[in-house]
Amino acid sequence: xxxxxxxxxxxxxxxxxxxxxxxxxxxxxxxxxxxxxxxxxxxxxxxxxxxxxxxxxxxxxxxxxxxxxxxxxxxxxxxxxxxxxxxxxxxxxxxxxxxxxxxxxxxxxxxxxxxxxxxxxxxxxxxxxxxxxxxxxxxxxxxxxxxxxxxxxxxxxxxxxxxxxxxxxxxxxxxxxxxxxxxxxxxxxxxxxxxxxxxxxxxxxxxxxxxxxxxxxxxxxxxxxxxxxxxxxxxxxxxxxxxxxxxxxxxxxxxxxxxxxxxxxxxxxxxx
Length: 272
Prior knowledge:
Elements: E1 7-11, E2 18-22, H1 46-51, H2 57-85, H3 87-110, E3 113-145, E4 150-157, E5 160-162, E6 165-167, E7 170-176, E8 181-213, H4 220-238, H5 244-248, H6 255-264
Antiparallel strand pairs: 1-2, 3-8, 4-7, 5-6
């Protein structure tokens, strides 16, 4: 509050005419603040004033923080709009190609059959006694040697000349001494009864076809478990709408939601 200054009337020409003159009254130190001293130039270097906003660091920090926050909000808003326009395309890719592909491949792996041919090359040790029983027919010409004298009774002497005596076609008894070699023709059947011991190694080479159904192995349980892991997410995405038109438009909804849905739907790129 300013003090009221009293006015004094000072006479100039006549006592009847007066002119108000403001009397200067000294200001009280209790009513007016002391005059400000002139601001002296700062003694700090220029780089301090430039980088620290003339020494007002808190004001500079909050200003920069506000600008950065607004920039990030604008970037996030643009990213959300772009993502919203392609949201259902991403949903279709995840549902059909990612989750659907995983579920179909897990089921196909569970129903798969491993078919191949196993080549076996090895040697097998064989050891046993082989009984042999058969009749062996023999017919051959050979020479036999007499081991002792052989008496032949009623033999026929066809020609014999000795001491001027000539004998032809006469019966006689003949003694063949030991060591005489006689040519003979053998025709006989020999029974063979023998046991042959067999101890050997037999090389083998086999092509073995193999068919292994995976559902009949221990892999069946992991494949079924993987299908059960993917199935809930696939079912959840299947219950969601497939487009913004399906999500926002309807007979009981405002028209501006349909216009918003039309704007959010990405436009197909037509080739030039």
